[in-house]
Amino acid sequence: MNRIPFAQQVPHEVRRSGRTLLFWQVFPLLWLAFLYYPVQAFLDAPHGPGAAALFWGLNTVFVGVFLRSFWGRPDPRWSVGGWALSVVTYALLLPLAPGGASAYLIYGGSMIGFQASTGLAAWLAILNVALMVLPFWNGTYAPGDLAWLAPNMLFTLVAAYGNHASFRRRVADAQLTAAHAEQERLAAEAERERIARDLHDLLGHTLSVIVLKSELAGKLAERHPARAAEEIREVERISREALGEVRAAVSGYRGSGLSAELARAKVALDAAGVRLTVGSALCTLPPATEAAAAMLLREAITNVVRHARARTVDVTLVPQGRGWQLTVRDDGVGGLGPEGSGLTGMRERLRAIGGTLARDGRGGTTLTATLPGEDDRPALPVPAGARGRV
């Protein structure tokens, strides 16, 4: 029996793309159209108040359980319970709606398929078909009814298979998303440990030496001023070396560039079912310009995954004048509503280095950034009091 552990099934907190979420909200409502057959069969004959109360009450409970088995957190208990309710509803309503009660067994096949056990889904779907055949033995159905009942039997098996395959796909997608999230968490944890280790190695010994020499200079200040001054100069030298080491280390912590950000974007878009195309080979950019471009790409891809419901994303980076133009275009819902804090922050970041950002919400969303060359970047103002300082 092929099983997927329940602990590995779809986490309730996993964010799915807007398109997939909308499908799983609408899909169960389409299935409810099959209730037309038992309702029509029931209305074709007169029934007393008790029969009417039984029929409508059971249908109300049945619809609630059916929607819960699809809309709630995937749970085998709801799947098996929904199947059992479909069998009970079929047995109780068969005398009241003989021409349409088999629809409940089709619902049972769909619900039993939406769980992890392939063997259980298969056997209970076959049992559904057997239950459809039983009324021929007691005379409820005539032999001629097999012409319309046979497609129902086939559809029961198809519904069970289709929903089971769909369920397993959802589980696989959720496991892949969880694996990516775990990889990102472990990478972040490893990076934090590396930073802590590097800072300890860089500054631990240096700061200890600075403290000792400062204490020594304080003790020598009155008795041996020359030696105290020498120790202070040594403290200054060590401090400058430590500052250089820290700056070198910090430069290594900065983003790994546009190419690495593009690789991360592909992973995120693949998980969301969005195709990424890159229009041209990436140019070599100055470090500050490349950092801004990578941040813009990250913000744009985040917005696509969260809001756009897009199918494709195109990224191009081409020379323009003495700088470059980065374009990120998607075919999602677009819109010209107010910008969020992410895009506003990116606009300010580009403005700080002499670039611009334009947004077009027609036919999707297009972000166009102009990136300056090294010589075109504005010089940062230096406060008067800071001139000459290290």
Question: Keywords, please?
Answer:
alpha+beta, five-stranded mixed β-sheet, 5 strands
**Low-pLDDT segments, ≥5 res:** 1-22, 379-390
The counted number of beta strands is 5
What sequence of helices (H) and strands (E) makes up the elements?
HHHHHHHHHEHEEHEE
Overall average residue pLDDT? 76
Q: Classify the secondary structure makeup into a structural class.
A: alpha+beta
Give a verbal description of the structure:
With 390 residues, the chain is of the alpha+beta class. 64% of the residues lie in helices and 8% in strands. It contains eleven helices and five strands. It has helices at 18-31, 36-43, 49-71, 76-93, 102-113, 118-137, 146-223, 225-253, 258-271, 287-308, 341-352; strands at residues 275-278, 312-320, 323-330, 356-360, 365-371. It has a five-stranded mixed sheet, with helices on one face. It is elongated and about 115 Å long. Residues 1-22 and 379-390 have low confidence and may be disordered.
